[in-house]
Design brief:
The complex is a heterodimer of chains A (530) and B (460).
Chain A lengths: L4 H16 L20 H16 L4 E17 L2 E19 L2 E7 L4 H18 L16 E5 L11 H16 L4 E19 L4 E19 L2 E7 L8 H6 L2 H16 L2 E2 L3 E7 L1 H13 L4 H4 L15 H4 L12 E4 L20 E6 L2 E2 L9 H8 L8 E2 L8 E2 L3 E4 L8 H6 L3 E6 L4 E3 L5 E5 L2 E6 L2 E7 L1 E6 H6 L1 E4 L6 E10 L4 E9 L2 E10 L5
Parallel strand pairs in A: 4-6, 8-20, 9-16
Antiparallel strand pairs in A: 1-2, 1-5, 2-3, 5-6, 6-7, 9-25, 10-11, 10-15, 11-12, 13-14, 16-19, 17-18, 18-21, 19-20, 21-25, 22-25, 23-24
Chain B lengths: L9 H5 L5 H14 L4 E17 L2 E19 L2 E7 L4 H17 L23 H4 L3 H18 L7 E17 L4 E16 L6 E8 L7 H14 L9 E7 L1 H7 L9 H5 L6 E2 L3 E2 L11 E4 L21 E5 L2 E2 L6 H7 L12 E4 L5 H6 L3 E15 L4 E14 L2 E6 L1 E6 L1 H4 L3 E4 L3 E4 L2 E3 L2 E12 L3
Parallel strand pairs in B: 7-14, 13-20
Antiparallel strand pairs in B: 1-2, 1-4, 2-3, 4-5, 5-6, 7-21, 8-9, 10-11, 10-13, 11-12, 14-15, 15-16, 15-17, 17-21, 18-21, 19-20
Helix pairs in contact in B: 5-6
The chains are: A alpha+beta (530), B alpha+beta (460).
Chain lengths: 530, 460
């Protein structure tokens, strides 16, 4: 039986409540001190010019995005700086629909004349596309909206003095280098502020300021002929400088560095079948690759076939409400409203309000990620008549298309943590942090590694392992999940850059999860002598 | 092949690439704005036009123009840079000031090298107007030809689903320093790739081509090959994963061999972090590292590569032999590391294009010489597993086939593999004739003994 829209909302709300109870993520909403800026007069001027030109030239629909991106990166190794860069990119992109065909053009020349030319270029592309057209684009309705929004932060990371940032990174490296055998330490910060104004021919006008921070830390220890690297999983977040400070990188670096040194003495794993316990610092990426990507509707209908691939979660009419993804304890939520997350926004790049919905409920696949033009493909199957608001472009110079929201595994009802899972495990491997990752183009066969691995015997951690990777088939893997952590063990990881599309575009996305155990998973030994 | 006469794209008309004189004037002006001890200006001016399609419909089509300036300033031993694409006078001043402010705050860099003075560069003509002029109508027409060819060639399997991407790029780059260096280069790049899938969902094929010159690309041939592969790859069968002889088509070799580039970093080798490290703190230059039939080089002036003849500091890129007849000849030395070690600075391998020189045999001849093995179209999702051996993991995609007694006999399910491009080149059975696979790459087919296919993938 197909779920009704009402059931859908009910379950979404219920599970969301359990997530909200997870607590540790929350920043006090009153902490937001920055006011959301409105559109600049210059941005409105050129955007309106482009919009009017597109309409006059015959667009049945058009949207214009004016974006101003500021990106600062600071990277260090040991006691020196390897790069300080501050970049600004400003421009306009216009998308047009003519007889159901898309066209897009973008320019960094921010004059009315250039905006008009870009609009006419987009129209020319729409018209040229009519020569190869089997499907006509139809957009799901969206209410007209006006407003401004800013990522709630206490302190804009781009306003923090650069010397504070450099001092923090160098202090982090210095602490790491105290550890015996640790010869190399590197750390970096990636800080982004994106201001974009969207105008549509349907009357929507919104301006958003998105702020994101991405710290990183890595060390290498060398002894004899061996070297081992350890990277701490410092999740990038849609938060301000307060988040970077909360990580206490200088205070923790020695402990992180000792992991690399300890790996030098770790035992090489014996390949075989094990129960695998994945900490959230590792599992978030497995969720991203094996749930996030396969539930993208553009992949399921073949639009990514030439690049990122298609999906085993297809065709929609055979999987919605039918495909068993995992056990009943498995609930996976898509959410663009989650505090601190990378893909949190108020509206997407089509002016659709941020949404929260279940992709998988009690182990059964429920719904995809959608944009306005995708809604009609599945609305009879899901009963959902709105876009889930997944249309995004990485910059003013790229066309918006379907991108992943935050996709998270919701906590189980019993508030247990990773220690409880270890206690319950007879023979297993515990994996922490993300290592190498690879998955096939329909998202079946994957192989993931980690940064630290521990042998578990009779409910106890008995030693460190190295050269570990786990390899599995997505539906078999998720079906083998038999124990998951509760609300207090929930943690939000994420990727600052996730690639998809041609030309390839980058997207920032978070994934929350709890620790989980998977039974009888294949563990490989990745070591080979040269 | 016949091409319709391309017309200049409207976008390229409105904002042409920055010319040599304009770049020089802009760079000189920025240098005069800067009060820093040394200043470097990097300019990238770019136009691109793309057309994407799926299920016999163009899904997106775009045209983009942008010019970006990166200003790098040095104050004593402190250095920082700022980038902007807002090029009015006030913004340029602001960007210079920002770079200076960042540099003042940066600690001294003990490894800082002064900006370069005037250099001499090889002449490389990598700009072809048929690519720079590729307009939306011509692109749509090329897509139509590829889709038609795929539809015709895919008929034995029914109505094949096709999806693909065509992109033309024209780019001008310039580097200038306050020490008198100026370099300018223009290039174009056209890439067309296409996937065909059979309606029963069991077959998938792919083909691609890339060149500086759009005229060298045949969209109909790409559509035909993709569909033929899709038809042939239907109903794949299972064989046990394990070590098999593999015939890697040139595209598969292009996916794998350039991954060696990172291993050619001299500093990593000297510091004990590379497969080319020698115990005791030096490197393996002069040692045999792969089969003696392997020669790997970069050469921006090679007509088959036509790469940029300088790096972002303005350092000339010249022909470099990385591996000659199996012997490691060169590693890439940054300017700092070269000075420290008493070597010449060398740009990293991919900057000057990359050729794996080879023999004279075609892929078909490599197949004919194979008793039992697996033919691989290309690879997907390759990720590093172990930098000590350059070990990678990845998957086969869009056609893996069993070879028996010199003939392709049946389609196989895709495999995951764990293999090192370095170790693999020690298990070389046969090397084919290099061919252009994408702009700046010449790669042959290879027949490799004992390629490590580790598990099966259900993906089609």
């Amino acid at each position: 039986m197909q779920p009704t829209r009402r059931d859908f909302l009910k379950t979404t709300a219920a599970t969301a409540a359990s997530l909200a109870a997870a607590g540790p993520l929350s920043l006090d909403p009153a902490a937001q001190t920055l006011e959301a800026p409105g559109p600049s007069r210059a941005a409105l001027d050129v955007a309106n010019e482009a919009l009017n030109a597109a309409r006059s030239a015959g667009a049945s629909y058009a949207d214009v995005r004016v974006g101003r991106y500021r990106r600062q990166t600071i990277s260090t190794r040991e006691r020196q700086i390897t790069g300080v860069n501050d970049g600004e990119s400003y421009g306009l992109g216009v998308r047009t629909l003519v007889e159901g065909c898309w066209g897009f053009a973008a320019t960094s020349t921010m004059t009315r004349a250039a905006a008009r030319t870009a609009a006419l270029d987009a129209i020319a592309m729409s018209r040229a596309a009519r020569a190869v057209q089997k499907h006509r684009v139809e957009l799901a309705p969206v209410p007209r909206v006006t407003g401004n929004w800013i990522t709630p932060v206490r302190r804009d990371p781009l306003e923090v003095p650069i010397e504070d940032k450099i001092a923090l990174l160098l202090a982090t490296n210095e602490a790491a280098l105290k550890v015996k055998n640790v010869r190399f330490a590197s750390s970096s910060l990636q800080l982004l502020r994106e201001v974009k104004t969207l105008l549509t021919s349907e009357g929507t006008s919104v301006t958003q300021t998105l702020i994101r921070v991405g710290p990183s830390f890595s060390v290498t220890a060398i002894d004899g002929g061996d070297f081992q690297t350890f990277e701490e999983e410092l999740a990038p977040r849609g938060l301000g400088w307060e988040y970077v400070e909360s990580l206490n990188m200088p205070g923790n670096a020695e402990r992180w560095a000792s992991m690399a040194a300890e790996k030098l003495t770790a035992r090489s794993v014996e390949a075989g079948q094990y129960d695998v316990i994945l900490e959230p610092t590792n599992l978030w990426l497995t969720i991203h690759e094996s749930i996030g990507h396969p539930t993208e509707l553009d992949r399921a209908i073949g639009q990514e076939a030439n690049y990122a691939g298609t999906s085993f979660v297809a065709p929609p009419e055979k999987v919605i409400g039918q495909l068993r993804y995992g056990p009943p304890i498995m609930n996976v939520q898509a959410d663009r409203t989650q505090e601190g997350s990378l893909s949190r926004v108020a509206w997407d790049d089509e002016g659709v309000a941020a949404d929260k919905w279940l992709l998988i409920e009690k182990g059964v696949f429920k719904d995809y990620q959608t944009t306005r033009e995708q809604v009609a493909r599945i609305q009879k199957l899901t009963g959902v008549t709105r876009s889930h608001g997944c249309s995004f472009a990485e910059s003013w110079n790229a066309v918006q298309f379907q991108r992943m929201p935050n996709v998270s595994l919701l906590p189980g009802p019993n508030d247990i943590g990773v220690d409880d899972i270890v206690k319950d495990t007879t023979r297993g491997v515990l994996i922490r942090n993300r290592g190498s990752w690879s998955i096939d183009h329909q998202r079946y066969n994957f192989q993931f590694s980690g940064q630290a691995f521990y042998e578990v015997r009779s409910g106890k951690i008995t030693g460190m392992l190295k050269d570990v990777a786990y390899q599995a088939n997505t539906p078999v893997f998720w079906s083998s999940m038999d124990l998951i952590g509760g609300p207090s063990s929930y943690w939000l990881g994420g990727a600052f850059t996730d690639g998809k599309g041609e030309p390839s575009q980058s997207n920032s996305v978070s994934h929350g999860c709890v620790p989980a155990r998977f039974r009888n998973v294949t563990i490989l030994n990745t070591a080979r002598s040269a | 092949m016949a091409q319709t006469q391309p017309r200049r794209a409207a976008a390229a008309d409105a904002v042409p690439l920055i010319t040599r004189d304009q770049a020089k004037e802009l760079a000189d002006h920025i240098i005069t704005l800067s009060q820093a001890d040394q200043t470097r200006v990097n300019i990238v001016s770019e136009w691109s036009g793309n057309t994407r399609f799926a299920d016999a419909s163009i899904t997106t089509s775009g045209g983009i123009t942008d010019t970006t300036v990166t200003i790098t300033v040095t104050l004593g031993r402190r250095r920082a840079s700022a980038t902007s694409n807002v090029l009015d006078e006030a913004s340029l001043k602001r960007t210079v000031d920002l770079a200076i402010r960042l540099a003042r705050l940066a600690p001294e860099d003990p490894e800082l090298m002064p900006e370069l003075g005037p250099q001499t560069y090889s002449a490389v003509n990598a700009y072809v107007s048929s690519t720079a002029d590729l307009d939306p109508e011509t692109r749509a027409s090329a897509v139509q030809r590829a889709v038609n060819a795929a539809t015709a060639s895919g008929k034995p399997a029914g109505a094949v689903f096709s999806a693909g991407f065509l992109e033309a790029t024209a780019r001008a780059t310039a580097v200038a320093t306050s020490n008198g260096l100026f370099a300018y280069h223009r290039s174009t790049d056209a890439e067309f790739s296409m996937t065909a899938r059979t309606p029963d969902g069991t077959g998938s094929g792919w083909a691609s081509a890339g060149a500086r010159d759009w005229g060298a690309i045949d969209p109909a041939a790409i559509g035909r090959i993709a569909a033929q592969k899709a038809v042939a790859s239907r109903n794949p069968q299972t064989i046990e994963p394990g070590m098999y002889t593999a015939v890697l088509e040139p595209q598969a070799v292009t996916d794998l061999v350039p991954l060696l580039a990172g291993a050619f970093n001299a500093r990593n080798a000297d510091e004990g972090r590379s497969p080319f490290s020698k115990t005791g703190g030096s490197n393996r230059i002069g040692e045999k590292v792969v089969d003696e039939r392997v020669t790997l080089y970069s050469d921006p002036t090679d007509p088959a590569l036509l790469a940029e003849p300088f790096d972002n500091q303005g350092l000339p890129i010249n022909r470099t032999l990385w591996i000659e007849k199996g012997i490691l000849r060169n590693l890439a030395y940054s300017r700092f590391w070269a000075q420290k070690q008493g070597k010449q600075p060398t740009a990293p391998p991919l900057a000057g294009g990359l050729t794996l020189a080879g023999g004279s045999k075609s892929t078909e001849e490599l197949i004919a010489g194979c008793e039992r093995g697996i033919l691989v179209t290309h690879f997907f999702y390759i990720r590093a597993l172990d930098p000590r051996t350059v070990l990678q993991t990845g998957l086969t995609r869009d056609g893996a086939f069993l070879i028996e007694q010199g003939k392709v006999t049946r389609a196989l399910k895709n495999f995951r593999w764990n293999e090192s491009p370095l170790l693999m080149l020690n298990r070389l059975e046969e090397i084919g004739k290099p061919e252009p696979t994408t702009a700046g790459r010449m790669m042959p087919a290879l027949r490799i003994r004992g390629f490590n296919f580790t598990s099966l993938s259900d993906a089609v």
